Sequence to fold (272 residues):
Amino acid sequence: MRKFLFHIKKKIYYTKVYLNRFFHEKDEDPKFRKILNDLNEQGISFVPNFLLKNQIKKISKEVKPLLSRLIKEPNKKLKYYRNTHEGLFRLYNISKVSPASKLFYNSKLIRNFSRYYVSKNVSFYQDMVEIRQKINRPLSQLQFTSDKFHFDDWRIRLKFFLLLTDVGIENSPLKYVLKSHKISKNAMEEDLFINKKNGKYGFYKNSEIKEILKVHNLKVRDCTGKAGTLIIVNTNGIHKGTPLKDSKNPRIQLGLYSDLRKKKWNPNNFNL
Fold:
C-alpha cells in the first residue's frame, strides 16, 4: 500500500509541475531559453559570464575574509558549516554581509526560471558562500558523503552555483551524469522514501554507476568553468562532489537552492 501511495504522490507532484509550466508565461530571455533546453535535455546548464569580472572581484573581496576567519574559527553572527576533516566550509545568509552578492541572489533570471520550472510557490534557501580546500591526506581516506554519486530527491530541486574562482579538473568540480534525471530510479526511491533504507540520499556504489552508464549509454560531465560562470543543476539527476587536488587554488562559489519545501532546512544536514 505504501508503495502504491508513494507513486500516486509522485504522479500528482509531476502533474502539478507540468501544469505550472503550461500556464506560466515563459521568459523570452535567450539565457532563460538556453537553461530550459539544457535542463530538459541534459539535466544541467552552464551560463558563462553570468556576472562581469569586476562584479566577481567585488563579491570575492567581500566574502574571502569571512571564509578565512571561518576556517580558523566558527562564525558568531551567521549560520555556518565547518568540516575541517574534509576541507569544506560554508557561510549561510551571506547576502546579509555581502551587498555585492545580491547581484546573484536577487537575479531576476534565477527567480523567474525557478518559478517556471519548479512551481510559482517555489522556496529559495541555503544562500551561501563555500570554499573547498586541499586536505593533506590520501584521497582514499576521504569519506565525505557528497563525494559519492547520488541524487537528492524524487522531486525537482534546482541548485544554482556561481563560480568565484576558475574551476578546472583539479579544483573540486562537481561531476554530473548527463541525462540521468530522465532515467527510472524507482528501486532506489522506494528504498529511500518508502522503506527508509540507505540513509537520506540515493547513494550508488561504483559498480552500480558503471552499470547505469553502460545500460543507458550516459556520460559523466566535469562541471568546470571560468570565474563568473553560473551552473544550474537538477539534482534529481545523479551527481557527486570531488575533493580538491590543487592546493594553491581552492574552489570558491556562491550557492542557492530552490524547490518546494515544507520544513526549514538545517545547515548541518549537508548535501551537494
DSSP finds seven helices and twelve strands in the chain. The chain has one domain: 2-259. Residues 2-259 form a domain with the Jelly Rolls fold (CATH 2.60.120.620).
